[in-house]
Amino acid sequence: MDVRMANRMRELKASEIREILKLTQRPGMISLAGGLPAAELFPVERVEDVTKQVLGEEGRHVLQYSPTEGDPRLRELIAGRMNARWGTSVGPDDILITSGSQQALDLSGKLFLDPGDAVLCESPTYLGAINAFKAYEPQFVEVKTDNDGMDITDLERSIAANPKVRLAYVIPDFQNPSGRSWSLERRRAFLDVMVRHAIPVVEDNPYGELRFEGEPLPPLKALDAHGLVIFLGTFSKIFCPGLRIAWLAAAPALREKYVMAKQGADLHSSSLGQRQIAVYLDRFDLDADIEILRQTYRRRRDVMLRTMEETFPSGISYTRPKGGLFLWVELPGDVNARDVLAHSLDQGVAFVPGGSFYPNGGHENTLRLNFSAMSEERIEEGIRRLGRVLGEVMAERAGTGRVEALAGS
Ligand SMILES: Cc1ncc(COP(=O)(O)O)c(C=O)c1O
After folding, report:
1. What are 210-238's pLDDT values in tens digits?
2. Same-domain check for residues 35 and 51
3. Is the separation of the CB atoms in 151 and 129 below 8 Å?
4. pTM for the whole thing?
5. Scanning 1, 101, 112, 359, which has its CA 20 to 30 A from the CA of 249?
6. Is any ligand 1 atom within 6 A of the Cβ of residue 236?
7. For ligand 1, what atom is nearest to the CA of residue 241?
C-alpha cells in the first residue's frame, strides 16, 4: 500500500557508494571504492581482553543506560588527547560522545538548518554529510576549493550571494574525497570570514591523525577564539569503526543543544563501546597502533601513486595526499567516470565516480580512489587494470570522441 511520506524524503537517495560496495562483494573484486580501514590491523585480541575486563569488573554498569554526554573517563581522555595533539584547550565538559561522526553530522543539520537555509561546503565534499544534511532540506552552496583549501574570494562572494547561509561544513585535513589539506593561511582567512559573519563551522576531522609526512597543522578548533567551531573526531579510522564511538567538541552553549538533539536520537551512545575504548586507552598505546596505520597507509599510497605514474595515460591529473585514505582523479572534461566504472568493473576493479561528491551535480569526469583497504599487491594490480581501461578510453576518445563506443568491449 502506498503511504504518504514527509517532504524531506523526496530528496533522499540510497548512497551510490553503498550500491558500489555491494558489487565489491563479488569474489576477486579489487575494491578501491569504499573508505574502509585495514581490517587486518584491528587489535582484535586486545579488544577481546578489554571486553572481558569491562564485563567482568563493571558488567551491570556497562549494560545499563548511561548519561547522554558520555562516559566521564572517556571524555577526559579525549580532551587530553586533543589538547596534546592539536593545541586546543577543551575540557571534558566540552565533549559529547556521539554514535559515529555520522550522527554528529545529522545532529548539526538538526541544530542549524531549516528548509531553504544554506550550508556552505567544499567542492567536492563528503557524501555522507550531503546525505545527512539533505534530510533538513537545505540548499548547498559549494565553494571553489583548490589544493590549499577553500578559495576565500569565492567564499566571500558565496556568502554575499546567499543571505540564508546558516552553517559551514569543512574537512581541512586529508579531505574525503579529495585527499587535500588546507594551508595555515587559508585556515586563518576562512575563520576570519566565519567570525565576521557569525557562521558556525562544523570541522570534520576523521583523518588528521593519519599524516604520513610534513608537519601537523592546527585544526580550526585550535585557532577559534570565538567558540564558532564544532570539532568532530572519531575512533573509526584510528581504532575501529564497528564500535561507532566518536565525539564532538563545542562551546558549552552549543554542546548543550547537541545533547538535547542527541537525546531525541538515541539517548546515548553504546555504554559498553565507550568503556571498551576508555579502558583500551588507559591500558594500551593507541598512538603506537596509529603509527602502524600511518606506515601501512603510506606504503599503500606510494604503491598507488607509483603505479598510476607508470600506467595512467597522459591528460589525467590526480592529488598526492600527505595522509588519509583517498586520492582524487580528474579525467578530461568530456570523459564520464560512470562509463569508465562500467568497464573497470568488468575488469574486476571498483572505485567511486566523483559526481556524487558534488551536492549540486556536475563534475562527472572525476573519481575517488581508496588506498587503505587493499594490500599493496592488490592495489598495484587494481591500478594496472584501471590504467589499461583508461588507456582504452583515452585512445577511443582520441579516435572517435566517444567514450560510449567502448560499451560491451
Ligand atoms: C569526512 C567523514 N566524516 C565522517 C565520517 C563518518 O565517520 P564515523 O564512522 O565516525 O561515523 C566519514 C567516514 O568515512 C568521513 O569520511
Report:
1. 999 999 999 999 999 999 999 999 999 99
2. no
3. no
4. 0.95
5. 359
6. yes
7. 9
